[in-house]
Specification:
78% helix, globular
Length: 432
């Protein structure tokens, strides 16, 4: 039996295990181990199974993950999300649909210090939805803007998605962070445009809130200094080469710790909670990475990525058609799987194809993350929708899914714009 056939059997076996609801990290490790045992022998398979957790667990590069997760936890308990929302509300709340636009902007701000889409969606859901309910906002608009705004957490740096992509493809995490800035602003603007259009067509969906004095608006800016300082230190340090992304994660985590301590929100109980949540999230991500590494080694020895790249390169199809097919595959996968799992599972197969077609890997990383954002709010899985449902249990699931369609269209427009004009993602990294 050829190595390619064994590789294809392994992929089918992995899909079967995932269909049986086995955890993806364990499924990839198991299939990878069995496949390696067939290809190079049981002793080699056991060796790789034993050494991979040690190598990945002691990796300096991977230490950026728990540090940025910890930074997000400290930012969460410090109440920074509520501060950002109050500030944006003061400036935009008096306009029709202004509260929903303020929610999107607050999501973008919180994403800049959190790095997690799920955390952004859950936090802003608890903060923003009660306010929009107070002003009789249509539940479709209020829930849709929070679910969509939460997806900005995976795009606006620092982003766990970019970290995983950078580690798996060996691309610069710093450049990926910088590449996500302008597309993140573009996507947030398109989400706000979707809100504006909905409220223009149906004014009752987003009634205007209370007017605020200019003195109040200016005073409210004081609540954002922590977020702005933290973001500028982390991203400015990476951009100017003061420290590496890993060092930036440490600086960011310590800065968020000081901010929470300064605001009087950090107790011993909350500190332990931050450490526990960081540990749980880190363990989940590391298990997936370890499993993916074993599975990727198996696929590499089976020559599946190289064979697929050669096959696609030999097709008489324009590379943009092939790219469109890849995007469509990711959108479909996003409907049934977690975005990080999709990334880790597919990159070993897809990335050689992207390289063979000579697409910029930094640009593709940004495009991939935006496509995975779409998966976070698409049925039937749509993890951000389920997280929002937990934060707002009174809102029916069907209402939330109805509300996300205008934002899905906005995200697809962002994908088209970024595909047509890659410099949106590549301009800032080119200056580094």
């Amino acid at each position: 039996m050829s190595s390619e056939i064994i590789g294809l059997i392994g992929i089918v076996g992995l899909a079967s295990l995932l269909a049986l609801r086995m955890y993806i990290g364990l499924a990839m490790a198991l299939v990878g181990f069995i496949g390696l045992s067939f290809l190079v022998g049981l002793d080699a398979g056991i060796h790789i199974l034993g050494i991979t957790p040690l190598a990945e667990g002691s990796s300096y590069t991977l230490s950026v993950i728990p540090l940025f997760v910890l930074m997000g936890q400290f930012a969460y308990i410090s109440g920074i999300s509520a501060d950002i929302y109050r500030t944006v509300y003061c400036w935009m709340g008096q306009y029709r649909g202004g509260l929903a636009m303020a929610t999107v902007m607050a999501c973008a701000g919180f994403a800049a210090v959190c790095g997690s889409s799920l955390a952004t969606g859950a936090t802003m859901g608890m903060v923003a939805i009660p306010e929009m309910d107070k002003y009789k906002y249509d539940p479709r608009l209020s829930s849709g803007c929070v679910a969509a705004g939460g997806t900005l957490g995976i795009l606006i740096p620092p982003s766990i998605g970019f970290i995983i992509y950078g580690i798996l493809t060996e691309e610069s995490i710093g450049k990926l962070f910088m590449a996500g800035l302008l597309p993140g602003i573009l996507l947030a603007a398109l989400f706000m445009a979707a809100i504006y259009i909905q409220c223009r067509l149906r004014p009752a969906m987003g009634p205007s809130g209370e007017c605020t004095l200019w003195s109040t608006k200016i005073r409210s800016l004081g609540g954002t200094w922590g977020m702005l300082l933290l973001f500028c230190v982390v991203m400015g340090g990476i951009y100017f080469g003061v420290f590496t992304p890993t060092e930036a994660a440490g600086v960011g985590a310590f800065g968020a710790f000081l901010f929470a301590l300064f605001k009087g929100k950090l107790t011993w109980q909350s500190f332990v909670q931050c450490l526990m949540e960081t540990g749980k999230t880190t363990a989940m991500i590391f298990l997936i990475i370890i499993g993916a590494n074993i599975f990727s080694t198996f696929l590499g020895l089976a020559r599946i990525p190289m064979g697929l790249a050669d096959f696609i390169s030999d097709l008489a199809l324009p590379r943009m058609v092939i790219l469109a097919c890849i995007i469509l595959i990711y959108i479909v996968l996003g409907c049934i799987m977690d975005c990080y799992a999709i990334m880790i599972l597919t990159i070993p197969i897809i990335f050689p194809v992207i390289q063979a077609m000579q697409f910029d890997p930094i640009w593709f990383g940004v495009l991939m993350v935006i496509v995975l954002e779409v998966g976070l709010i698409t049925p039937p899985v749509g993890l951000n929708v389920f997280v929002l449902k937990a934060a707002a249990p009174d809102v029916p699931m069907t209402v939330i899914f109805q509300g996300i369609w205008p934002f899905l269209i906005a995200a697809l427009i962002a994908i088209v714009i970024l595909t047509i004009y890659p410099p949106i993602a590549l301009y800032i990294p080119s200056l580094m």
